[in-house]
Design a protein that fits this description.
Elements lengths: L1 H16 L8 H4 L5 H18 L5 H21 L21 E8 L7 H11 L3 E5 L3 H7 L8 E5 L7 E5 L3 E7 L8 E7 L5 E7 L13 H15 L5 E6 L7 H10 L26 E5 L3 E8 L10 E7 L1 H4 L9 H11 L6 H4 L1
């Protein structure tokens, strides 16, 4: 039993320490994701160690100390996304329909053909803006029924898992589809005009993940996030970013993104709101995100039921209330953070050809 507990402890230590390395390979960055699961393993392991170990020698104490250290480190990253933490975004104090904005973002899974499930959710929750990811021409044909109530649209159907569509009740000025880092991975940008006439700069993103089947390194994903973060930091205007960022809320990259952009995360102090993987309850984490400037307060945020995709849709409702929102505080970037963001944003994407 001592050897078995030692092996599990060693694995936990490696899983905890690997993300500290400045290595972008998917086999390392993948350990950023299951921090909650690692915390659960560490908790169970501590119980087993307390029951089975004799504590007669230093080895047992070292094993328990290492496990406890791993547990505390994993919780440091995850606990802000639970109700025990102070809320980063205030709840809206009064309703203002002219300045309200509701959004539904959904990675539909390109091969999924259950469009009726998504359209039913849209009908039920009636969001002002619908953003779909991985939507190809087939999905566009199904989603165009939304144009009757959401006449403002931006369409980028692709069959490479990176198609994007936007259907909006509000006008979108200065809209553009851009390829910030990779030639086949688009992002959508524009100025959303609320009923009150106030304008919100919106960025809809879906960078490619580090994985054995796509990019071997996280460089393209990290670069796209930091390119947008630096642009947001240059302008103190109402801003909202949402999409499938293919990164968890608590990773170093997403934390750096929040620091540099100055945007707030409404999940902090409220919950994880896991959106992936829809088919595996024990292996889930938040991949679909919504960040916004201090001009907004929160009405509601939550994942919606499964539509046949590997992602749950994410629904959020905000109110443009800068007087209440200016009291909100995120996390600030220092000179080192800004330098690191500049270096990451300027990186050349690592392609398969580079690896080979």
């Amino acid at each position: 039993m001592f050897e078995a507990l030692g092996a599990v402890t060693l694995f936990l230590v490696l899983a905890t320490c690997l993300p500290l390395l400045p290595i972008g390979h998917w086999s390392v960055r993948g350990f950023d994701f299951p921090r909650l699961q690692f915390a659960a393993i560490a908790t169970l392991l501590l119980i087993l160690q307390a029951y089975f170990l004799s504590f007669a020698g230093i080895a047992s104490w070292l094993m328990v100390t290492a496990t406890l250290g791993c547990l505390l480190w994993q919780l440091w990253w995850v606990l802000p996304y639970t109700p025990v933490w102070r809320k980063e975004v205030h709840s809206c104090q009064s309703q203002d329909s002219d300045n309200s904005l509701s959004i539904l973002v959904s990675n539909v899974l390109m091969t999924n053909r259950n469009s009726k499930a998504l359209l039913a959710l849209i009908h039920e929750h009636n969001p002002d803006v619908v953003i779909t990811l991985e939507s190809d021409q087939w999905w566009q044909d199904q989603l165009d029924v939304l144009l009757t109530q959401r006449p403002h649209s931006i369409k980028c159907p692709l069959d490479n898992l990176y198609g994007m569509h936007v259907y909006s009740r509000f006008a979108i000025e200065n809209s553009e589809i851009r390829y910030l880092v990779e030639d086949d991975v688009p992002s959508i940008h524009g100025d959303l005009v609320l009923r009150s006439g106030n304008k919100v700069r919106v960025h809809f993103l879906h960078p490619a993940p580090p994985s054995p089947t796509e990019n071997s390194h996280s460089t393209p994903r990290d670069a796209e996030l930091l390119v947008v973060a630096r642009r947001v930091a240059e302008q103190s205007i109402p801003t909202l970013i949402t999409g499938d960022l293919n990164d968890v809320a608590w990773s170093r990259t997403t934390r750096l993104f929040r620091k540099v952009s100055g945007l707030l995360d409404p999940r902090i102090g409220r919950g994880l709101f896991n959106t992936f993987h829809a088919d595996y309850p024990l292996v889930r984490w938040p991949l679909d995100h919504l960040f916004h400037s201090r001009h907004f307060t929160l009405n509601e945020i939550r994942p919606l039921p499964n539509i046949g995709s590997d992602h749950f849709p994410l629904y959020a409702s905000l109110t443009f209330s800068p007087q209440q929102g200016h009291q909100q505080q995120g996390i600030d970037a220092d000179a080192q953070d800004k330098q690191q963001a500049q270096e990451i944003a300027a990186q050349k994407p690592v392609t398969k050809e580079d690896v080979l």
